[in-house]
Amino acid sequence: IGITTFQKTKGQNLNFAVPAEWINDISKRQIIASQSTAARKELSDKAYALQAAENWRALEKLSSKWVNEFPKDILAWYFHGKAWVELGNREKAIESYKKAVAQPISNKDDFFDMWTTWINLGLLYDKNKSYKEAVDAYKEAILLSPVEEILAGNLRNSINATGDFQKGVQVYKEIAYSFPMSPIGWRGLGWSYSNLLKFREAAHAFEKLVAIEPDNVFGWVGLTISRRQIGDSQGATEAWVMLNRLDPKAASGLLGPRTKDK
Q1: Residue 16, phi then psi, degrees to nearest 5
Q2: Which phi and psi (to 5°) does residue 170 adopt?
Q3: For 38-71, how does the pLDDT look when each residue is reduced to its tens digit (9 = 90+)?
Q4: Burial of residue 5 (number of CB atoms within 10 Å: 0-12, 13-18, 19+)
């Protein structure tokens, strides 16, 4: 006895059937999945409680059990890394965080856990002065959610620490093209090109930035400077006038027109 699964309506008429015993197998799998979910919830509840209590040794022990039972669980590896951070072993923490970000995202909770782990990984790399690795970690976090200004600052600081502004161009291009309406990519791209003295490309990036955020002072400063550097006096003056409207103090720091904007 079998269970008909589907029937083709065109071409060769084929009926496929699976054994009726599969119904029992499906039920068993559902029970196992339910049990796994309950077990994971129990572990996560305990982990959050231990984190709140700052009982890092107990958290390390619990999370070690957790990653053994659920080796593809992002949150399990995150807590494992967090415990090692607080216990003072950065290398083990980095190893755990790297295992966390290597797992696939399967739901919205995983998405947040992955984002949090990339941020923490970047912070650890910064502390170890592994700035190139920090840049990559912050980039991945921003690509998951390009809304955190502090995170954007961390990325900029790490790029600055490496002095590799060509890498900055690559990173910010990826962010800008992935999220063209986010200011983070265009601002960083303009900043990176300016440090490479590629002012024409910088001007283009700053134009994109102020189109998205017309009141972005940094964007108008960058646009004023980059247009002057490429000999676009009229464009620079127009940018300076907009800057002066938004932030007269910032505008006064540049050699802008001596006449007042009317």
Answers
A1: -115, 140
A2: -60, -45
A3: 888 899 999 999 999 999 999 999 999 999 999 9
A4: exposed
Indicate yes or no: pTM above 0.90: no
Provide the token pair at 11. 């071409």
**71 CB-contact burial (10 Å; exposed 0-12 / middle 13-18 / buried 19+):** exposed
Confidence of residue 1 (pLDDT cuts 50, 70, 90): very low
123 vs 121: CA distance, rounded Å: 5
Pairwise CA distance, residues 79 & 242, whole Å:
48
Q: Give residue 197's region: left, alpha or beta (phi > 0; psi -120 to 50).
A: left
- pLDDT tier for residue 255 given thresholds of 50, 70 and 90: low
Burial 52-70 (b: 16+ CB within 10 A, else e): eeeebeebbebbeebbeeb
Q: Distance between CA 151 and CA 72 in Å, rounded?
A: 26
DSSP β-bridge partners for residue 4: 17
Give me Rg for the CA atoms of the chain.
27
Write out pLDDT tens, residues 114-126.
999 999 999 999 9
Which helix or strand (DSSP H or E) is residue 3 part of?
strand 2-7
Within a 10 A sphere around the Cβ of 17, how many other Cβ atoms?
10
Tokens of 244: 């002066």
Query: d(Cα 202, Cα 197) in Å, to the nearest integer?
Result: 8
Is residue 209 a contact partner of residue 193, using CB atoms and an 8 Å limit?
no
User: What tokens appear for 162 in the block?
Assistant: 């490496």
- CA 14 and chain centroid, separation: 48
